[in-house]
C-alpha cells in the first residue's frame, strides 16, 4: 500500500522542515501545500486584484501549474499573509483539492504538509502528524528564518502575524486548522529539529509495521 504521510500544523511550527526530512528519509515525493495558496495570492497581487476578489482567486487556483511553485517570492512574509486571506474562499480550496489529491495518489505515496491534509485532503493517510509549538517559539523560529534571508522584521510584528494567522486559519468555516481525530500531536516547543525528526520517524516506523 502506498505510504501517504499527512502533516498539519500552524504557521512556523516546523512542519515544513519535518516534512522535507521525512520525504527524503523514506524516499517519497513532498508537497508543501502552503505554496499553492501562496501562488494563488501572488497571482492576485501581481495583477493588482483585491484579495477579496473570489472570481479572480478561483480562476488563478484552477489554472495553477507546478512551475509557479518554484518562485522564491512565495516565501516572503507578505505572501503568507495574503495566502491566509484567500485560503478562506471555499471555491479556491475546491480548485486546489484535486491538485493535492493527484499528488498524494502517486504509486509510491507522498508526504504533504499543510493545514487540512489529515482532515480533508487525505483522510485515509497511513500516518497523520499534527505539529505544534507555542506562538512565542514559532515567532522566534520565523524571525531567525527571515533574518537569514535578509528580510528584516521585528519579533513583536512576527508574533502578531502568527497570532492573527492562527486565529484566521482556526476560525474559518472552510477546512479550519485542527488536528484530525486520528493524528499524533507532536509539540516541538522544547525540541530541536533533530529531536522532532526522531519523534516523527518513530511514529512513521510504528505505522509501517502495523
Ligand atoms: O504553510 P504556509 O504558511 O505556507 O501557508 C500559508 C497560508 O495558506 C496559511 O496561513 C493558510 O491560511 C493557507 N493554507 C491552507 N491550507 C493548507 C496550506 C496552507 O489554508 N493546506
What is the secondary structure topology, with strand pairs?
Layout: E1 3-8, H1 15-26, E2 30-32, H2 34-46, H3 54-62, H4 77-86, H5 90-104, E3 109-114, H6 117-121, E4 127-132, H7 135-148, H8 155-171, E5 184-187, H9 193-208
The structure holds cytidine-5'-monophosphate.
What can you tell me about this protein's structure?
With 210 residues, the chain is an alpha/beta fold. It has a single domain (3-208), classed as P-loop containing nucleotide triphosphate hydrolases (Rossmann fold, 3-Layer(aba) Sandwich), CATH 3.40.50.300. Helix content is 53%, strand content 12%. The protein has helices at 15-26, 34-46, 54-62, 77-86, 90-104, 117-121, 135-148, 155-171, 193-208, and strands at 3-8, 30-32, 109-114, 127-132, 184-187. A five-stranded parallel beta sheet has the order 2-3-1-4-5, with helices on both faces. Helix 1 packs across helix 9 (193-208), helix 3 runs parallel beside helix 5 and helix 7 crosses helix 8 (155-171). The chain is globular, with a radius of gyration of 16 Å. The termini are close together. The site of cytidine-5'-monophosphate (C5P) has 14 residues, from helix 2, helix 4 and helix 8.
Notable traits:
210 residues; alpha/beta; Rossmann fold; five-stranded parallel β-sheet; 9 helices; 5 strands; globular; binds cytidine-5'-monophosphate
Amino acid at each position: 500500500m502506498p505510504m501517504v504521510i499527512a502533516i498539519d500544523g500552524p504557521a512556523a511550527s516546523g512542519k515544513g522542515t519535518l516534512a522535507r526530512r521525512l520525504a527524503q528519509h523514506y524516499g517519497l515525493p513532498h508537497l508543501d501545500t502552503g505554496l499553492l495558496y501562496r501562488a494563488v495570492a501572488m497571482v492576485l497581487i501581481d495583477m493588482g486584484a483585491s484579495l477579496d476578489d473570489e472570481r479572480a482567486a478561483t480562476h488563478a487556483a484552477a489554472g495553477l501549474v507546478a512551475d509557479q511553485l518554484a518562485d522564491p517570492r512565495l516565501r516572503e512574509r507578505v505572501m503568507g499573509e495574503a495566502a491566509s486571506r484567500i485560503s478562506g474562499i471555499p471555491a479556491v480550496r475546491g480548485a486546489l483539492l484535486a491538485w493535492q489529491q493527484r499528488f498524494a495518489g502517486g504509486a509510491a505515496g507522498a508526504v504533504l504538509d499543510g493545514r487540512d491534509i489529515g482532515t480533508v485532503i487525505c483522510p485515509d493517510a497511513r500516518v497523520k502528524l499534527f505539529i505544534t509549538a507555542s506562538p512565542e517559539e514559532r515567532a522566534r523560529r520565523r524571525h531567525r528564518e527571515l533574518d537569514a534571508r535578509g528580510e528584516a522584521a521585528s519579533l513583536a510584528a512576527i508574533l502578531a502575524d502568527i497570532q492573527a494567522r492562527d486565529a484566521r486559519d482556526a476560525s474559518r468555516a472552510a477546512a479550519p486548522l485542527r488536528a484530525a481525530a486520528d493524528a499524533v500531536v507532536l509539540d516541538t516547543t522544547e525540541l530541536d529539529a533533530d529531536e522532532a525528526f526522531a519523534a516523527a520517524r518513530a511514529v512513521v516506523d510504528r505505522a509501517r509495521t502495523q
